Amino acid sequence: KKELGGNVVALIYKDGKIIYQKALGADFNAKTQAPVASCSKWLTAALVMSFIDQGKLSLDDKVSKFIPIFSKYSKGYITIKDCLAHLTGIESEPIRPVTIFSRKKYATLEEEVTDFASKKEIESNPGLEFRYSNIGLNIAGRVLEVLTRRSFEQLMQERITRPLMMRNTSFSSLNAVNPSGGAISTANDYMNFLSMMLDNGIFNGKRILSGNAVAAMQTVRTSASMIKYAPKVAEGYNYGFGAWILETDANGNATVLASPGLFGTWPMIDKCRGYACIFFTKGVLGEEKKDIYLDIKNSIDQQIITNCK
Questions:
Q1: What is d(CA 212, CA 48) in angstroms, rounded to the nearest whole number?
Q2: Section 121-150 average pLDDT
């Protein structure tokens, strides 16, 4: 409790139900809302994949098809796939609390993404170098707005949070909506999303994403040599769409995925052991808590037998 800032909820889900629940801290429980920072990226990647499922968008579509200004500034070859995997090649700053608050200068996502196109340098050709940032997922979010002429928040509600009964999750903001880090949620809500990802796109008997979409999100998109910047919490890992791949099987397929946020919340799924877990916190913990969460995961793994050989 002390190490994790005094407020933390731990949930473990397996075989269709919560098998462990613990809440620590005054007035902090599985229904308490808190910002989840970069855990937002997993939700946004799923939203984009829902459009790919419908054939309204392709992973190989160029962003410039929807936002022509990207072509004007030598960024015309960036694809949706590049955006979801942080492979746009656009220069970026490390994500820190100060960079989150500096976004307040933008009134809309359109304004921010126009800045990415016109004011940021290209450091590498798309698809070659990985730089973890808010750029790719926010560009993808803006593409959805252009495609549908609807707001990102509306689309997220219609396709992800409402079908998953995530009633206390939203991306609403007084400033520009932030698909990469602007969600507030609860431990219960986010667990609904994790259970859907673990159960191959199905929640409460309803299909939210296709099996192909889930598989695409869990495909390893990087190699160690491609990674030019990763936060300390994820150093040594590769990336899929919206989530880090912590472990793979003998064939290189993802078995453990996580999308940790700067504020300390860690959502995770373990496909070999068939469970999802979330450690949900309040406040800015920084990145040094990785070892604690991996220790806790190790304790869980000792209790649950793996199905992978």
A1: 13
A2: 97
